[in-house]
Write a structure and sequence with these properties.
Order of helices and strands: HHHHHHHHHHH
Low-confidence stretches: 1-11, 186-207
CATH class of one domain: Mainly Alpha
Distance between the termini: 29 Å
Shape: elongated
CATH topology of one domain: Serine Threonine Protein Phosphatase 5, Tetratricopeptide repeat
Helix content: 55-70%
Structural class: mainly alpha
């Protein structure tokens, strides 16, 4: 029965073995296990490989390879891979800098409830990086990030709110309420909310989220 279960979920075994190997510092074994599972389409293993290539664990740092693995995981809906790929495009690391593509990936991660992606996306809407300036959109995403306790989001939200007239405030609050219904997510107890952002007045460049 155990053999049948393993055969039914080969990628799961490869990921788990890779995770254990990485935890004990055996990066070569981790790369081997993750690669085998990633090639079968396992998104978690693809993300893990992206992190290892990005950080130079068991391999020479290779941002282009990291972007490739993040992309494969992101296309399957892996939220941290979507976020990390957005970061790479935002900063031009391993890929040509492209704020429009970065915003596209941030949007996908933000809609899945990732607070740091919501914050970064709000910054892009504030400054018009890769998207048209839209302060109502920025307000809505900052609201979602602030509700998760994202560092800096509440202060940024307050600074933005005081620039609105009553009509703009009403429109922004309506959009925020709609987004809370659509995309709101409360983090699990004790779960990390995200990396430390840059000030809201400038593009946010937090550290890449590590492999879980």
């Amino acid at each position: 029965m155990a053999a049948l279960a393993l055969a039914a979920h080969p990628a799961l075994a490869g990921y788990d073995e890779g995770f254990v190997a990485r935890q004990r510092g055996d990066f070569a074994a981790a790369i081997k296990e993750f690669t085998a599972a990633a090639e079968t389409g396992d998104a978690r293993s693809q993300f893990a490989l992206g992190a290892m290539y990005r950080n130079g664990e068991g391999v020479a740092p290779d941002p282009a390879a990291a972007a490739n693995w993040y992309r494969r995981a992101a296309q399957q809906g892996h939220v941290d891979a979507q976020y990390n790929l957005g970061l790479l495009y935002r900063n031009g690391v391993g890929v040509a800098k492209d704020d429009a593509i970065a915003a596209t990936w941030y949007i996908q991660a933000a809609r899945q409830g990732l607070a740091q992606a919501q914050y970064n996306l709000a910054v892009m809407y504030q400054i018009g990086a890769g998207v048209q300036v839209d302060l109502t959109e920025a307000f809505a995403w900052l609201t979602l990030a602030a509700l998760q306790g994202q560092v800096g989001a509440e202060a940024a939200l307050g600074r933005l709110a005081v620039t609105f007239n009553p009509q703009q405030t009403a429109a922004a609050e309506r959009k925020a309420e709609a987004y809370i219904d659509q995309f709101g997510r409360k983090p699990a107890a004790g779960a990390p909310v995200g990396a430390t952002p840059a000030p809201a007045a400038a593009p946010a460049t937090p550290e890449v989220r590590a492999m879980p």
